[in-house]
Amino acid sequence: FILWTLPQNMITSSVYFVKLQRGGCPSFWYTFNGRCYKYVATELNWADAELYCVSQRANLVSIHSLEEHNFIKTLIQNFDHAQGQTWIGLSDTQKEGAWMWSDGCPLDYDLWGKEQPNNLQGNEDCVSFGGSSKWHDYPCSETFPSVCATRILCP
Ligand SMILES: [Ca+2]
Ligand SMILES: [Ca+2]
């Protein structure tokens, strides 16, 4: 029973837990694969969220694998039990459909929710995820918590 349920949980459900560890990161930042991540609970629009990350010598998080997505999901779950929408660093504000990470890394992985991105009313250029576990485009003026990550060599 346990052998069967464990992999199921780890792959498909919202009860995927990784123990958060600080590692070599500053206080209130957590480590995953040599990068440091911070959950920012203050609800900001996307631009202010990015500017806050930049003030921390970081950017809104870029995500390059399912493992990294799941780590960030765990970070969100740890700080927000409601698992509300949380900004990540992806946007298409410069050109519709041209998705770019704010840290300059190429888009080499995505996990869009059903029928996303849909650019609803022509006004959704910034990306978040939350309880549904997959990515959605939203108006950049929405105010959500966010996740910052330190700069890395792009994968
Ligand atoms: Ca858009
Ligand atoms: Ca959308």
UniProtKB/TrEMBL annotation:
<dbReference type="InterPro" id="IPR001304">
    <property type="entry name" value="C-type_lectin-like"/>
</dbReference>
<dbReference type="InterPro" id="IPR050111">
    <property type="entry name" value="C-type_lectin/snaclec_domain"/>
</dbReference>
<dbReference type="InterPro" id="IPR002353">
    <property type="entry name" value="AntifreezeII"/>
</dbReference>
<dbReference type="InterPro" id="IPR018378">
    <property type="entry name" value="C-type_lectin_CS"/>
</dbReference>
<keyword id="KW-1015">Disulfide bond</keyword>
<protein>
    <recommendedName>
        <fullName>C-type lectin domain-containing protein</fullName>
    </recommendedName>
</protein>
<dbReference type="InterPro" id="IPR016186">
    <property type="entry name" value="C-type_lectin-like/link_sf"/>
</dbReference>
<dbReference type="Pfam" id="PF00059">
    <property type="entry name" value="Lectin_C"/>
</dbReference>
<dbReference type="InterPro" id="IPR016187">
    <property type="entry name" value="CTDL_fold"/>
</dbReference>
<feature type="domain" description="C-type lectin">
    <location>
        <begin position="32"/>
        <end position="149"/>
    </location>
</feature>
